[in-house]
Design a protein that fits this description.
Layout lengths: L12 E6 L4 E8 L3 E9 L1 H5 L6 H23 L8 E7 L3 H18 L3 E5 H12 L7 E6 L4 E8 L2 E7 L5 H11 L6 H9 L24 H17 L5 H27 L3 E5 L6 H14 L2 E3 L3 H4 L4 H12 L22
Helix pairs in contact: 2-3, 4-11, 5-6, 5-7, 5-8, 6-8, 8-9
The protein binds 5'-O-[(R)-(carboxyoxy)(hydroxy)phosphoryl]adenosine and zinc ion (ZN).
């Protein structure tokens, strides 16, 4: 049933599906790096009403939209299911009910069309988003993955080979953005709103703490920073002092960005590698992008980051990661299941 590329120069077309959180997405990717379509149906407007993602609503919406999103991805690419070489799908980590919708869809297509099925780790997808627009980028490199659920500093040793150097001990960076945004009344999702508001504020107005973890220089902690922002806001209210939201946003953002870039640059220096990439939803943050770019330029390190649309959840990144899994022979059976807490580098084949 598995089709292995017969000739090395045969083009490989992969249909990729992503449904781990609140975006229903499908994409057709050629040879892991060329995106022929990238369809994303976002549920943000729905979840906004509740101030965050409601898992049950997310699963239901994925079911309603998945077929249409897949059809649109194929038609935009000018392809049918018969033109594909494999189906790749995110099978973890993420919300179990949401993941299951994509996994079931991919398994149905794989079974009906006798196509190889490749399960992909969501974070591996975020990292691989960098391959799409940077045709020259190849491992090894250091990657900082910053999303709503994850903050990982990773050494990408080879395609599909990862070493986690550091991670958050509590909140993910995106989670901190979302919680602080809620506290200053900006609503969900908070990251892009803080990014925008911070441009009008003074990043040095308030000195928020930058947590360091003893004996673990690459680890992060954002819960203390979040509490410091909440305490600051409460303190202002109690003293009857005005709150300048733009200054709070800019100062909070600076505290996050300084820590992220500082730890990442330590890891790059210690690794001896000369390439650094950002990945994940928070990688679309304008202050993080410019601080990382500057830090890399000062050190003679090549800097990579995906376009904002490829930073937040999408299926093109799953197609990129899926391609490299496919060519190394990774195949999943129809017993593939959603794994909500799948670890990076762990393969459940
Ligand atoms: O990677 P992603 O789309 O989903 C997960 O895998 O979690 O990341 C979503 C996270 C949210 O927390 C969102 O607030 C944050 O990325 N985010 C940003 C920006 N755009 C999205 N955070 C800071 N600045 C942004 N411009
Ligand atoms: Zn994500």
């Amino acid at each position: 049933m598995n089709k292995i590329p017969e000739e090395n120069n045969k083009d490989i077309f992969i249909l990729a599906i992503e449904s781990s959180c609140d975006e229903t997405a499908a994409s057709v990717v050629k040879n892991g790096r060329e995106v022929l379509s990238n369809v994303i149906s976002s549920q943000i407007e729905l979840h906004k009403l509740y101030g965050g993602v409601v898992p049950e609503i997310a699963s239901r919406k994925h079911i309603e939209r998945i077929n249409q999103v897949v059809e649109e991805a194929l038609s935009t690419a000018g392809m049918t299911l018969d033109d594909l070489d494999a189906v790749a799908v995110t099978y973890g980590p993420g919300l179990v009910g949401a993941l299951l919708v994509g996994v079931a869809e991919a398994k149905a297509i794989s079974y009906a069309k006798k196509l190889p099925l490749v399960g992909v780790h969501h974070i591996e997808g975020h990292i691989s988003a960098n391959y799409i627009e940077n045709k020259d980028l190849e491992p090894p490199f250091i990657c900082l993955v910053v999303s709503g659920g994850h903050t990982h500093l990773v050494r990408v040793k080879d395609y599909g080979e990862y070493e986690i150097l550091g991670r958050t001990r509590d909140d993910a960076a995106g989670e901190a953005f979302d919680k602080v945004a809620r506290a200053i009344g900006l609503g969900y999702p908070g990251g892009p709103k803080i990014d925008r508001l911070a441009k009008e504020g003074n990043p040095d107005a308030i000195a928020f703490p930058k947590a360091k973890i003893a004996d673990a220089p690459y680890d992060f902690s954002f819960s203390g920073l979040k509490s410091a922002v909440l305490n600051y806001l409460n303190g202002c209210k109690m003293k009857g002092e005005p709150i300048v939201e733009a200054d709070v946003a800019a100062s909070f953002q600076k505290a996050v960005v300084d820590v992220l870039v500082e730890h990442a640059m330590w890891a790059v220096a210690e690794s001896g590698l000369d390439k650094f990439a950002l990945a994940g939803g928070v990688a679309s943050n304008s202050a993080l992008r410019s601080a990382a770019e500057k830090a890399c330029a000062q050190r003679g390190i090549r800097f990579y980051r995906p376009s904002p649309i490829l930073c937040t959840d999408n299926a093109a990144m799953i197609g990129a990661a899926g391609y490299y899994e496919y060519i190394r022979g990774v195949r999943h059976g129809l017993d593939l299941n959603a794994v909500p807490n799948l670890k990076l580098g762990e393969r459940l084949v």
